Amino acid sequence: xxxxxxxxxxxxxxxxxxxxxxxxxxxxxxxxxxxxxxxxxxxxx
Length: 45
Known about the structure:
Layout: E1 2-6, E2 10-12, E3 15-17, E4 22-25, H1 27-35, E5 39-41
Antiparallel strand pairs: 1-4, 1-5, 2-3
């Protein structure tokens, strides 16, 4: 799981994901979303 910041509003597994909020998402999904410009992966320190 990685944290992503949503760039658009979307639904995922029946959950509403709001634009600008941060969510924990499976790494493979997060990478796909980043390529599609749906979300950006948040770098954790």
